[in-house]
Amino acid sequence: MRRCTDAVRALLDFWGPPYVNSVCDLYNFHLVGGEVLRYTDWQLPLSAPAPETDAPLFGFPAGPRLKRNKTKYEVGVSVDELEIEVYAEPQDLVQSGAGLTWQQALHYGIFDGASLDLWRCFMIENSVPIGTIAWFFGRVADVEVGRTRSIVHVKSLLDLLTAQMPRRLFQAGCTHIFGDPMCGFDRTSMRHDIAAAGGGQSRIDCGFNPSPPTLYDGGTINGLTGANSNFQRTISRLTGGAVYVLDPFIFPIEAGDTFSLLPGCDHTLDTCTNTFNNLARFGGFPYVPPPESAA
Question: What is the model's pTM?
Answer without folding.
Answer: 0.85
